[in-house]
Amino acid sequence: MDLIKREATLRLRGERLVQVLDSVTDAIVSFNSSMRIELFNRAAEDIFQCPREEALGASVERFLTDGLRQALEACVAKLDHSTEERPILRAPGGLLALDASGRAFSIDATISCAKTAGGILYTLDLHKYDGSGGAEQKIRELDLHNDYLKKEINATHNFDEIVGRSSALRAVLDQVNLVATTDSTVLLLGETGTGKELIARAIHLRSLRKNRPLIKVDCAALPAGLVDSRLFGHEKGAFTGAIKQRIGRFELANGGSILLDEIGDTSAHTQAKLLRVVQEHEVERLGGHSAVKVDVRVIAATNRDLQESVARGTFREDLYYRLNVFPLHVPALRERPEDIPLLVHHFLTRYASKLGRPILHVPNQIMCRLLEYSWPGNVRELENVIERAVIVSNGPDLRLAAESLSRSIPVVSIQNGWSRSSEHPSAISENAEPTALVEIERNHILNVLRRTGWRIEGIAGAARTLNLKPSTLRSRMKKFRINRSSG
What we know:
Elements: H1 2-23, E1 27-32, E2 37-40, H2 42-48, H3 52-55, H4 66-81, E3 95-98, E4 104-116, E5 119-128, H5 134-154, H6 167-180, E6 186-189, H7 196-205, E7 214-218, H8 227-232, H9 249-252, E8 257-261, H10 268-280, E9 282-283, E10 292-293, E11 297-302, H11 306-312, H12 317-323, E12 326-329, H13 340-355, E13 361-362, H14 364-372, H15 378-392, E14 412-413, E15 418-419, E16 435-436, H16 437-451, H17 462-466, H18 470-480
Parallel strand pairs: 6-11, 6-12, 7-8, 8-11
Antiparallel strand pairs: 1-2, 1-5, 3-4, 4-5, 9-10, 13-16, 14-15
Helix pairs in contact: 6-7, 10-12, 13-15, 13-16
């Protein structure tokens, strides 16, 4: 009799548990260590469009996308090895689950586990995500910012600092300081490889938006069919394959800055949409029916002559005038030859350390060739030449690869008053002694100390700029006899 009563009590408790689970609005799905479903409430039936009888005993994997499966496996591993009770499931770009028909939809979810007599039971608490939740939307935006910034930090084109002290470069940096604290649109003009992206970063980091992201868009590299989606975003179902809402680059840059690199390569259709963003400060996602306001500082860059493009009818005149608020010309390397020794040292230090080459000197004839070359590829080409030179150099002297500087053309810069035979301090006579790398290093350290106001430590200090420990910088200053009286 007691056994019958106990069974009745357990059955009643089970029925009450089911009623409680069916009364909540979130979907509850519990599964065991074999991934077999043991609990499946009414909300789960509605979300997954699957009857409870069909789900119970089946594998939970039928409802998982690849991203959700990976996130779920990571959380299960965390639960098995930690005391965290309800970690939030996360996946790049958001979580997507599958209903019984195989259709994907967005969800938010947490997971917990409990040890029962029958073993460990994992429970998913989830609901559909419709984009209206402010907190959830903020999390997604922060995840997107984080993913984007990680890629930017690891990008091969990332620069550590602006290297140079020529009058041409100083004039550019003076203009950067003038415009940075405003929200004016900047148009960076200059040849390929001159460092326009680096100047854009300098503008952003000196602005009031520095704590928000600088989002770079290479307009020339965007696939023709995906330009609108990448720049302005799209709504779920906007086109085949659009299984979820995607935030565009302009929304991602909200509150910060956006660099539209190679703006001269955009199509007329894209130019029209860009004009609306610049004028109205709003975007409309592909497939959307309402505008989204954005607060973005626009920095555009191009190696093309946009005025000529306007005359040919390949670039919109109204967009050109909107972008040309503060034009800034980034000089070619041949316009600032006195910066070449500093850049040589900068790249040589980087690649000699990276490749483990004990290079100590730049021979006179090598520096002469570097100074005389026309540098059609500018700073980017110089960096590549030095990297190849480091690779082929086995001894303490830098050697150039055989194929380097094959298009060497003597440079004469009337603007800067410098020529191959002038007495400019950066020019080197053929009869001079070999140029020691330490001399260039001393000048570079001295230049950075001047720029930082002789501050050694801290975020704005010379040690951080030079990527050195403060103690190492002080040792080198002592070695090179550098002090405030030096300049």
